[in-house]
Design a protein that fits this description.
Blueprint lengths: L1 H5 L3 E4 H8 L7 H24 L4 E4 L5 H14 L4 E4 L4 H14 L8 H8 L12 E4 L1
Parallel strand pairs: 1-2, 3-4
Length: 138
């Protein structure tokens, strides 16, 4: 969906960046959090520059917590850009089926099992416009 939404904009995938920067090094939630934090700190000025340059930027990043969305809000605010969060409001069963399909295709950077999905989704908080951005629900 991110590719479809981005169109002519700049699309950046967190999974691609992390798999490239930390090949084989992210094996659990703590390692993901550390790697993601470092990558976001390194990339934030570049993202702000893209936005300030007038280009649309689409971040295919996890935004499952209020804190992760605060980071995106800070980027947009620093650049004077609008933040829109695209939220796929589907059941865990549908998410797990899509994950299984993605794993079967074998083209994604990460193969994620249901236990890992459950571990990450346990932190999920649905986005809300009360957080200061527009939410598009699908």
């Amino acid at each position: 969906m991110a590719k479809k939404l981005a169109g002519d904009g700049v699309l950046v995938s967190e999974d691609h960046l992390l798999a490239t920067l930390y090949p084989g090094q992210i094996r659990n939630l703590d390692e993901f959090a550390t790697a993601s934090r470092r990558m976001r700190a390194a990339m934030a000025p570049h993202f702000v520059a893209i936005l300030r340059g007038g280009q649309d930027l689409y971040l295919d990043f996890q935004a499952n917590t209020v804190r992760s969305r605060e980071w995106a809000s800070l980027l947009a605010g620093s650049a004077g850009a609008e933040l829109v969060v695209h939220y796929l409001d589907v059941s865990d069963a549908i998410c797990k089926q899509r994950l299984a399909d993605r794993n079967a295709e074998g083209e994604h950077e990460y193969q994620v099992d249901e236990a890992t999905y459950d571990q990450f989704s346990a932190f999920f908080v649905p986005p809300s416009e009360d957080e200061g951005f527009r939410v598009e629900i699908y």
